[in-house]
Amino acid sequence: MAILPIRTVPDPVLRQKAKRVKTIDGSIQKLIENMLETLHAAPWRAGLAAPQVGTSLRVIVIDIPEAKDIVLINPEIVKRSGERSLTEGCLSVPGYYGEIKRAEQVTVKGRDVRGKEIRIKGDELLAQALEHEIDHLNGVLYIDHLESQDKLYKTEDETTQP
Hints:
Layout: H1 26-41, E1 47-49, E2 59-64, E3 67-81, E4 84-89, E5 96-102, E6 105-111, E7 117-123, H2 124-137, E8 152-154
């Protein structure tokens, strides 16, 4: 396994729509292992999308207290409900955080590491992480959701998040 370099803006891979994974083979398994190791080594984090490590494929990993080491291949949001304002940051936009709106609850379908179709229903932080990482797969960053540049703030220390 390896810790992969995290791509940051303005890297063009972050703005591309990622390709669907056709076959879950050894290369995809290795990518997932490396993404999890990279995520675990990050100073603050909730999730990671393959484009953030330079691979334009539809793969995300999430690791938060209530949802450890979730892996989703070809995820898509099938339902959103509610709306809430929150503060969000991103490993690919270091040194900043912003105030945006996200759904209160989302339902996502995708495939697990064995290729089995799964559905995940998340609220609060899990819903936020799912939306954030799936946005990455569509070439969208949280800063694209800012109502105005006045809602983007510089952090004092790039290794912390509010």
